[in-house]
Design brief:
The complex is a heterodimer of chains A (413) and B (243). Chain A is 56% helix and 19% strand. Chain A has 413 residues and is an alpha+beta fold. Chain A folds into two domains: 186 residues, no CATH class; 123 residues, no CATH class. In chain A, the strands form two sheets. Chain A has a six-stranded mixed beta barrel. The model of chain A has no long low-confidence stretch (mean pLDDT 85). Chain B has 243 residues and is of the alpha/beta class. Chain B has a single domain, classed as P-loop containing nucleotide triphosphate hydrolases (Rossmann fold, 3-Layer(aba) Sandwich). In chain B, 30% of the residues lie in helices and 27% in strands. In chain B, strand 1 and strand 2 form a beta hairpin. The chains are: A alpha+beta (413), B alpha/beta (243). Chains A and B meet through helix 1, helix 10, helix 11 and helix 13 of A and helix 2 and helix 3 of B.
């Protein structure tokens, strides 16, 4: 078939569609709804995935966490953080002993009560090293981050999250104000940018102070046995490729530091966030597949609608088909014509569905603040799928039309 | 076109049987005849006589159970559906009782329809179709849709459509069956004029006064030709009735 013939068939098909406007619109409706739902589902799915990746980036992909305690010790689960805490000495040994670590910070965590004027609030405090920002960068929206000197001196300075600002300072700029943390006055020197929830808790309900200050004044009592406790340790690795190696060497060195004999279980836990995120992503992808399947089903239903209407159309236009055959249409011509019609219906339905899907997606993101993402792949897929539906579900009616006996078709009332 | 008097249609011992349920219907029981170029033939017969079957075969819409039928030198009994379609497209023009025009489609586009299937690029399609419409007296109505035309005018459009590919044969099945007497006469006059210009025409009718416009009459009954003669009005100059 030459291109000018295809163009002629295209025009004929368009004409036939225009002759039956309402029916064509109703036929395409199934595809419109199908494609729109595929687009929306894909956008939501991609959005969730993107959000997860953003979280992953904010947690740091090249960050390895080392926590004291193991899931099990002698058959008894202690949970993370159990067992003897790490000391500053352990941390220094790790940083100097394992190549590939570019930055490290300890983290002593606890709950504290905050008081500012008449307002009070319970929040989470983390005592960290100044290198915290190198390990897991968390931009500030106001003020400054504390320095290595602040850490050495055990300065009573605090960097607070936006939830704390909201609860204690009614949203005003707290930099320079003094807040009482567990009844000890701290100067607020900076405000962390908002990160929202990580799925477990509000990350913005957070106070960061120098680890030395936290140890001596806020949460040190929990680590009384280790005077220079650092809680858990987070390290940043130079590049993705050396993650496994660094993790291995960390384990070996840590076992040595904690004098664990061969054959004994670790009494510490090493985790990297990439693993955590991969697990979360796997769980999410089940939901994504479920959404995609639902959307695909609606496309199939739309396709069956197309087939149904095309079959009616073939029956109704039997005489026309007979006439076309009488004046020289080959079976393949008749088939091409009906297939072209089905594909045009599906494609235009697909395009309308695409627009509606994009509209719904934009609405979701603008008015409901959903994280959504429409990729070129999704758009391409929607178009290909709707053309495919046209071919697959248009084939049977088109074949039936092309197999009509011209004599009977001409006589059909 | 043809150098000698080659027959346009040669039918030999055409037999057509259908199986309808447990019944075998003998539509044609051995029909032989020839049609020379330029003839104007009327096929008559009561319903069930086999005249429709015969016309479908001449129109390359149907194939014989046995016997041979050659149209313009091409043997149709062994043709594939696509070859039959091409033969219909190039060699035969159809005119139907119910006109069979595409609704909500202009006269011009209706006339152009066979060109769509003629498998060669025509930049002159509009001009050719307009010429044919002018030939049938509708040069001023090319943009009209069937619903805006009278029955006689619609049949003229159908005739223009039959002529658009310059066929060797026009096959008209009860062309005046849906028209009043006056309009019928006009349509028959048009067909006579086309025949006078050299076109071979075969019409199927059950009306004797319509058949009288033709120059040769083939009467069919019970699947056989029972009469094949020149009509009263036929000039003797067309003495080519090989039967």
């Amino acid at each position: 078939m030459k291109s000018h013939e295809l163009w002629e068939f295209f025009k004929v098909a368009l004409q036939a569609i225009k002759l039956h406007r309402l029916r064509s619109a109703l036929t395409a409706l199934g595809i419109i709804i199908g494609v729109a739902s595929v687009i929306v589902m894909a956008a939501i799915g991609n959005g969730a995935s993107k959000q997860l990746q953003q979280q992953m980036a904010s947690m740091g992909t090249r960050v390895i966490n080392v926590m004291p305690g193991a899931m099990r010790i002698g058959g008894r689960s202690t949970g993370f953080g159990g067992g003897a805490p790490f000391s500053q000495k352990d941390m220094n040994a790790l940083v100097s002993g394992v190549p590939g670590i570019v930055a490290a910070t300890g983290s002593l965590d606890g709950s504290v009560s905050l008081v500012y004027g008449a307002a009070n609030w319970s929040s989470n405090v983390s005592g960290v090293h100044a290198e915290f920002q190198d390990v897991r960068p968390w931009p500030l929206i106001s003020g400054r981050w504390f320095t290595a000197d602040d850490v050495t001196r055990g300065a009573k300075v605090a960097v607070v999250g936006t939830a704390v600002v909201r609860e204690l300072f009614a949203g005003g700029d707290p930099v320079g104000e003094t807040v009482r943390i567990n009844n000890i006055p701290f100067e607020v020197i900076g405000v962390l940018s908002s990160r929202g929830s990580n799925g477990f808790r509000d990350q913005d309900d957070q106070v960061l102070v120098p680890i030395t200050t936290a140890r001596s004044r806020l949460v040190g009592r929990r680590y009384a046995t280790v005077p220079d406790a650092v809680g858990s340790i987070a390290v940043r690795v130079a590049d993705d490729a050396s993650m496994d190696q660094v993790q291995e060497e960390l384990t070996t060195l840590m076992r040595k530091l904690r004098r664990i004999n061969a054959g004994e279980d670790d009494n510490f836990t090493i985790r990297n966030f990439a693993e955590l995120v991969a697990n979360a992503d796997a769980a999410q992808s089940v939901v994504r597949y479920l959404l995609a399947t639902t959307a695909a089903m609606s496309l199939v239903v739309g396709g069956i609608g197309i087939m149904n209407i095309m079959l009616v159309s073939v029956t109704e236009r039997t005489r026309e088909i007979g006439l076309r055959m009488a004046v020289g249409a080959r079976p393949v011509d008749v088939m091409t014509q009906f297939l072209t019609e089905a594909i045009i219906l599906c494609l235009s339905g697909g395009l309308v569905g695409l627009l509606i899907g994009v509209g719904i997606t934009v609405t979701l993101s603008v008015f409901f603040k959903w994280t959504v993402a429409i990729g070129a792949g999704t758009v391409l897929m929607a178009i290909l799928v709707s053309a495919g539906v046209g071919i697959i579900f248009g084939f049977m009616p088109a074949r039936r039309a092309s197999h009509l006996n011209p004599i009977e078709a001409l006589r059909y009332e | 076109m043809d150098a000698g008097p080659q027959p346009l249609i040669v039918a030999r011992d055409l037999v057509k049987t259908y199986v309808l349920g447990d019944q075998t219907v003998h539509a044609l029981r051995g029909v032989s005849f020839q049609v020379m170029p330029g003839e104007f033939v009327a096929i008559m017969g009561p319903s069930g006589s086999g005249k429709s079957t015969l016309m479908n075969m001449i129109g390359a819409l149907d194939q014989p159970t046995s016997g041979t039928l050659s149209i313009d030198g091409a043997e149709i009994s062994r043709m594939e559906a696509a070859e039959l379609a091409d033969l219909r497209n190039r060699t035969i023009g159809f005119v139907f009782q119910q006109f069979n025009l595409l609704r909500r489609t202009s006269a011009l586009d209706n006339v152009k329809l066979p060109l769509l299937y003629s498998r060669r690029r025509r930049t002159d399609a509009d001009a050719v179709a307009r010429d044919k419409l002018t030939l049938v007296g509708l040069g001023d109505r090319i943009g009209h849709q069937p619903s805006q035309l009278s029955g006689g005018q619609q049949q003229r459009v159908a005739i223009a459509r039959a002529l658009v590919n310059s066929p060797r044969l026009v096959l008209a099945d009860e062309p005046t069956g849906a028209l009043d007497t006056q309009t019928s006469a006009e349509i028959m006059a048009l067909l006579e004029r086309l025949n006078a210009e050299g076109l071979t025409i075969i019409i199927v009718t059950h009306e004797p006064d319509i058949a009288a416009h033709a120059r040769r009459l083939i009467r069919v009954r019970d699947g056989r030709i029972v009469e094949d003669r020149a009509t009263a009005g036929a000039p003797v100059t067309h003495g080519v009735h090989a039967a």
